[in-house]
tRNA/rRNA methyltransferase
Amino acid sequence: MQERTSVNNPQIKAIGKLQQKKYREESGYYLIEGFHLVEEALKASVKYREILATEAALSRLAQLGLAYDEGKLIKISQSVASHLSSTKNSQDIFMTVKINMTVKINRPKHFAFSYGKWVLLDDLADPGNVGTIIRTADAAGFDGVILSNKTVDLYNPKVQRSMQGSQFHLNLIKADLPDAIASLKAADIPVYASLLDPAAKQLGDFAPVAQVALIIGNEAHGVSPEIEALADEKLYIPIKGRAESLNAAVAAGIMIYHFS
Amino acid sequence: MQERTSVNNPQIKAIGKLQQKKYREESGYYLIEGFHLVEEALKASVKYREILATEAALSRLAQLGLAYDEGKLIKISQSVASHLSSTKNSQDIFMTVKINMTVKINRPKHFAFSYGKWVLLDDLADPGNVGTIIRTADAAGFDGVILSNKTVDLYNPKVQRSMQGSQFHLNLIKADLPDAIASLKAADIPVYASLLDPAAKQLGDFAPVAQVALIIGNEAHGVSPEIEALADEKLYIPIKGRAESLNAAVAAGIMIYHFS
């Protein structure tokens, strides 16, 4: 087994840089951390380049009874583990996973929706919200989440932390939203935009549906006017008290479960 | 008008320390920041000790047409404003607000529930979750939120940011949860505990109710067994996909809106 004990080792330096979007895009890999995520990734049979772990973490991994490629294991020192970690309570295990969000709907020949329940994120900026919404869509049994090109990067470490492994359970697609909406409509999937507008149709008035696409807007600006214009219906979660609005991930959760 | 231009001024130093729980408890005041919160506080006629703002922020405040006590205004320099701020995009306005969470249900003679819809937080640890749940309870027109003694401090700056002023709109009570539950039951308010247990009754099977108390558990450990035992019903939000659980604030939002 290979061993890496120095944070100045070129391979370790390159892996540490995967915290930055630029280097993730260059290499086509992102870094996950902790036993829960590594376990989810192995169960999902994702493509990966290496598993890095301290001696103690390697022993624990061996006891989990999961199938993995021994040739991809790298034993690291505690200082290398601390260098790679982005959390306070590191579990000293890391994995470089191939980015698989390659389906682009702006080439419709290569992708078409056929059926299902989808969430569309229109330029969401908060990594915690994006990760939490994907986790909620997973919990509700939705088919996938479509991220607009300006939505915060899916492989941002904060998105990863709040997603809790849901990227291994459902379809995640980066796309121009107008193209995605056209594909959804072509498949007869109704597209609803969530608005903070009491004149829109109240959530409670929507009957259960077998398939649906829900558009969630940016935290500060809501759904953009050009996307709103493409929606089949506009939907409003009633504000009965005095808060001005709901948190985007909470609003998404209420809608997702209403239609789940 | 008084003026403070140095971060070493004893009054400014004392106000800066309100970021820490210890000093909030000693003084009985907490610090809010930004025009939205100051406006909400003034509209709610809360008790406050001082409003601190730069010259530009004072001009903007004067244009808002709100009633405030001129004698409590303090003009601060840009360096003092930067010192007091806990955000990247400071609006250079601050207010020291009296902590009013003084009702303790462990002295039942002094407090009794009569009616309404309540959320109970059982030792929640994440400030963003606590603030977001309070904001959601406000949006849904709930009467208040009861925080267990070990729940993260309400006046933590991160709780403040995610609460977005909802502390001025609904009842917030710190209490021993068993005492609070006894008071709720005495008022015939049904108490439901949210569990991650498919054997519990599914959320969709609960009919609308006129009054309810919903217990939300700690992010890692759920509702504690002694609190669970006091609940009238156990409630489960179905997990239909492969996520292991929902984020606590999202789960709370789904339940709150189900019963709103």
